[in-house]
Design brief:
This protein is 3% helix and 52% strand. The protein has one helix at residues 85-91; strands at 6-7, 27-28, 34-42, 45-53, 63-65, 69-73, 79-82, 92-98, 104-105, 109-111, 116-118, 127-135, 137-145, 152-159, 162-169, 174-179, 184-190, 199-206, 209-214, 218-223, 231-237, 241-252. The strands form 4 sheets. Strands 8, 10, 11, 13, 18, 19, 20 and 22 form an 8-stranded antiparallel beta sheet that branches. Strand 3 (34-42) and strand 4 form a beta hairpin.
Length: 261
């Protein structure tokens, strides 16, 4: 199919035709922007591939193959999706900017020693911090903790004044790629009902595609409505005070240097 890839979990020691599938929960692995997704076995691991639509309104068939997403079984028997360690290493070609080493901009309060990001005024809507480096394409990493159970937290990509967010809502239990101030959701994924107090983001930004991996468990691919040409990157949260354990931007590999060490 062309919608999100889903699966069901049967009963132990029961043949497939004996399972009451109507009573089973549908589990979703992908957002709707990853079309006709399939799973392939590669060297003993399983990877998910699909098409990212050619435009953000899905008006044309075909598109771009996603970054391979490893599918694996979690301890509770459900499946998770992640960017495997080999691809993470190969795609990252050196740090461009690191919040603990380089310049940043914020109207809020950030303490490098305690790694605490705090609203300048607790009545403000959110706290944010931006790295000052500019990019055309990048691999972004951020680790945040102490998020509570009702915060909206994420990565912002400001491309010449147009801001795109990869955001997780612990209250709504979903991940979205949206355009700030417009309300357009380019892609959306409903997570489980467990709120995540810690978030580990890996975001790949290139041309008009954003691919996000969160907590080594969820993945979301999206086609946005413009080509990225000159952007900076921020983290933000609606919680008054959080811990920012990592925030850096790396050079994204090209087809010419992907295999380089």
């Amino acid at each position: 199919g062309v919608g999100p890839l889903s699966y069901w979990i049967g009963d132990e020691n029961k043949k497939i035709e004996k399972v009451d599938w109507n009573s089973k929960k549908e589990h979703i692995l992908t957002g709707e922007d990853l079309c006709a997704a399939q799973i392939a076995k590669v060297r003993g691991r399983y990877y998910l591939y699909g098409w990212i639509a050619q435009d953000h309104i899905n008006s044309r068939w075909g598109g771009t193959i996603n970054i391979p997403q490893e599918v694996y079984q979690q301890e509770d028997g459900t499946l998770g999706v992640r960017l495997d360690e080999y691809l993470t290493e190969k795609l990252s070609k050196g740090t461009i900017s690191d919040v603990f080493l380089d310049s940043y901009a914020t109207n809020d309060l950030f303490d490098k020693d305690t790694k605490t990001l705090q609203k300048a005024n607790k009545n403000n809507t959110f706290a944010s911090l931006a790295l000052t480096s500019k990019h055309k394409r990048a691999l972004i990493r951020a680790k945040l903790s102490n998020l509570g159970n009702d915060a909206v937290t994420g990565i912002e990509i400001n491309n010449n004044g147009n801001i795109y967010q990869v955001r997780y809502s612990s209250k709504s239990n979903n991940i979205q790629v949206i355009k700030k101030g417009v309300g357009t959701a380019f892609s959306k994924y409903e997570t489980d009902t467990e709120s995540h107090n810690e978030l580990d983001f890996v975001v790949i930004a290139e041309e008009s595609i954003l691919e996000a991996f969160i907590n080594g468990r969820y993945a979301l691919s999206a086609r946005i409505d413009e080509t990225l040409t000159n952007f900076d990157v921020s983290v933000y949260t609606t919680k008054n005070e959080i811990q920012l354990d990592e925030f850096k931007v790396s050079q994204l590999a090209t087809k010419n240097n992907f295999q380089d060490n």
